[in-house]
């Protein structure tokens, strides 16, 4: 269990919770790139914390702060139990998932389908706030299925706010609960950032963050003229070096880490984790995009994905992969 030791930064930049991606190894890597960004766990269901391995789901590294635990669930008592565990383990925020559109989540009566039951979300948030002292926040869509009226999300936020929630992370697309895969739900429903902007205008006392489709510093700066913060998902994962640019733009203009420094830190991390039974594969799978845009990037990715080399479970593989980049001619075609 680990607790933040210093004041927490504002939520101007955060990395989205992403199933199968934002585990503790990914978050450790991202923290090396952006010291002030808020990091979020993969969604953890209340059932997993009631009946599963709590340590496996909640363990994280002190370096990850500020870090939020995202919960999936709808039963107020189960949410309260899970939130209490999250605070005891040292998380800085409890976030309720009201945005995931997958059918598996719907069958569990949580995720985006909860937007149709704002009173239930309100009651769940109230139950969590009653037992923890850290912030309880909600991540949600702007609508479900073909409901495209702004009043739907406005009324949802207004109802949930009755529980004392003041931070809302708005994925600015509808969630189509039938007919689209989760991947398609991140790409096909049109983005309507203006809905998040209107929420901030209508509820100026709330902290409103916007999520969905953001991939550049220019886009981020446009959004920050209207809302309090941005949450980035796929771009942060697939092109992680961009996090250093966003850190400079939003927090620390002098921030200038080197990729070699990041590799060195990851090698040390792999060695520590290997001693506790973690495989090198589990860590380096998150690092494949670190060399994107540089000569030799293809070789970097290839070596870190090579099954035979991964079976050797050697942290030095990271340095060998980096040699594909650092020894490439500077005038080579980037890949």
From TrEMBL:
Its EC number is 1.3.1.91. The record marks 97, 183, 186, 298, 301 as: Interacts with tRNA. The keyword GTP-binding does not apply. Keywords: Flavoprotein, FMN, NADP, Oxidoreductase, RNA-binding, tRNA processing, tRNA-binding. Pfam families: Dus (PF01207). Residues 15-308 form the DUS-like FMN-binding domain. SUPFAM superfamilies: FMN-linked oxidoreductases (SSF51395). The keyword Nucleotide-binding does not apply. It catalyses: 5,6-dihydrouridine(20a) in tRNA + NADP(+) = uridine(20a) in tRNA + NADPH + H(+); 5,6-dihydrouridine(20) in tRNA + NAD(+) = uridine(20) in tRNA + NADH + H(+); 5,6-dihydrouridine(20) in tRNA + NADP(+) = uridine(20) in tRNA + NADPH + H(+); 5,6-dihydrouridine(20a) in tRNA + NAD(+) = uridine(20a) in tRNA + NADH + H(+). Its cofactor is FMN. GO terms for molecular function: tRNA-dihydrouridine20 synthase activity. The active site is at residue 100. InterPro entries: Aldolase_TIM, DUS-like_FMN-bd, DUS_fam, DusA, tRNA_hU_synthase_CS. FMN binds at residues 17-19, 70, 139, 171, 211-213, 233-234. Belongs to the Dus family. DusA subfamily. Catalyzes the synthesis of 5,6-dihydrouridine (D), a modified base found in the D-loop of most tRNAs, via the reduction of the C5-C6 double bond in target uridines. Specifically modifies U20 and U20a in tRNAs. This is tRNA-dihydrouridine(20/20a) synthase. The lineage of its organism: Bacteria, Pseudomonadati, Pseudomonadota, Betaproteobacteria, Rhodocyclales. The gene is dusA.
């Amino acid at each position: 269990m680990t607790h933040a030791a210093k004041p927490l930064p504002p939520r101007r930049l955060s990395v989205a919770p992403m199933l199968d991606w934002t585990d503790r190894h990914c978050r450790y890597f991202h923290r090396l790139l952006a010291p002030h960004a808020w990091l979020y766990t993969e969604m953890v269901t209340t059932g997993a914390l009631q009946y599963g391995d709590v340590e496996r789901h909640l363990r994280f590294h002190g370096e990850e702060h500020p870090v939020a635990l995202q919960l999936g669930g709808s039963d107020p008592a189960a949410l309260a139990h899970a939130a209490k565990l999250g605070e005891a383990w040292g998380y800085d925020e409890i976030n309720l998932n009201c945005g995931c559109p997958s059918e598996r989540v719907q069958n569990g009566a949580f995720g985006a389908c909860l937007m149709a039951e704002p009173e239930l979300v309100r009651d769940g948030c109230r139950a969590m706030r009653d037992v923890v002292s850290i912030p309880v926040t909600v991540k949600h869509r702007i609508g479900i299925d073909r409901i495209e009226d702004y009043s739907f999300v406005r009324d949802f936020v207004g109802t949930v706010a009755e529980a004392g929630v003041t931070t809302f992370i708005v994925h600015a697309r509808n969630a189509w609960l039938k007919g689209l895969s989760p991947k398609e739900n991140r790409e096909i429903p049109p983005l309507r950032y203006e809905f998040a902007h209107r929420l901030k205008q209508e509820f100026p006392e709330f902290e409103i963050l916007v999520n969905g489709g953001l991939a550049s510093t220019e886009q981020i700066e446009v959004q920050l003229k209207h809302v309090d913060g941005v949450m980035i998902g796929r771009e942060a994962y697939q092109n992680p070096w961009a996090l250093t640019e966003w850190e400079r733009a939003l927090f620390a203009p002098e921030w200038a880490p080197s990729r070699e420094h990041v590799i060195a830190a990851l090698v040390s991390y792999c060695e520590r984790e290997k001693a506790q039974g973690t495989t090198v594969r589990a860590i380096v799978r998150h690092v494949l995009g670190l060399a994107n845009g540089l000569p030799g990037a293809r070789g970097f990715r290839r070596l870190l994905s090579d099954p035979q080399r991964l079976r050797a479970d050697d942290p030095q593989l990271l340095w060998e992969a980096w040699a594909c980049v650092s020894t490439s001619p500077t005038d080579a075609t980037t890949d």
